Amino acid sequence: MSYVVLVAWLVQAAVGVLLLTGWFRHGRVRSPVVLTHVGLSVLGVACWTTYVLVDQVLWAWAALLLITVGNGFGDNMLLWRTRRMGGSHLSTINAYKVALRSIFKRRLPLRVGFHALFAGVVYFSTLAVCVVATVS
Fold first, then answer.
1. pTM of this prediction?
2. In this prediction, what percent of the chain has a pLDDT beyond 70?
3. Euclidean distance between the first and final Cα of the chain, in Å?
4. Whole-angstrom Cα distance, residue 111 to residue 91?
5. Do the beta carbons of residue 57 and residue 130 sit within 8 Å?
6. Are 134 and 56 in contact (CB under 8 A)?
7. Confidence of residue 91 (pLDDT cuts 50, 70, 90)
8. Angle, helices 110-135/92-104, rounded to nearest 10 degrees
9. CB-based burial, 28-51: b 16+ in 10 Å, e otherwise
């Protein structure tokens, strides 16, 4: 299962690289939120790869910790984008609802929606492997 999760991490990273190139093209690379999200994600995938190679569960938990924090920055970017699309008055919960509606109604680019939704797949599969590896 750890290999399947690694593939999920790599798919997520590939889509993230596509999104990052868009940020580069639009000159928004200096955003500390984007750079922190990317940095934590890179460190997370490095920790997960190390876990797969050495089979020491501490590396898996380190990867989970990094994507937990990194996903927070990713959510921040998604909510910022949602609020910029006309929902500046929204509470955080309502902004999440609008973001999800925007994803499913294709108001956001497909890769943004995929990256946002697939983050949960990566996160919870990583969590599952961490728990199972720790218990067994």
1. 0.89
2. 98
3. 14
4. 25
5. yes
6. no
7. confident
8. 110
9. eeeeeebebbbebbebbbebbbbb
Distance between CA 8 and CA 49 in Å, rounded? 12
Count of residues for the chain? 136
Amino acid code (one letter) for 117: L
Count Cβ atoms within 10 A of the Cβ of residue 26 and give its class: 0-12 exposed, 13-18 middle, 19 or more buried. Answer: exposed
Rounded CA gap, 74 and 62, in Å? 18
Rounded (10°) CA dihedral 102, 105, 111, 115: 60
Number of Cβ within 10 Å of residue 105's Cβ equals 9
Q: Which amino acid is at 103?
A: I
Please give the Cα distance from 79 to 112 (Å, whole number): 12
In single-letter form, the type of residue at position 73 comes to F
Two structure tokens written together for 60: 């898996």
* Single-letter code of the amino acid located at 84: R
Q: Tell me the torsion sign for CA atoms 81, 115, 67, 132.
A: positive
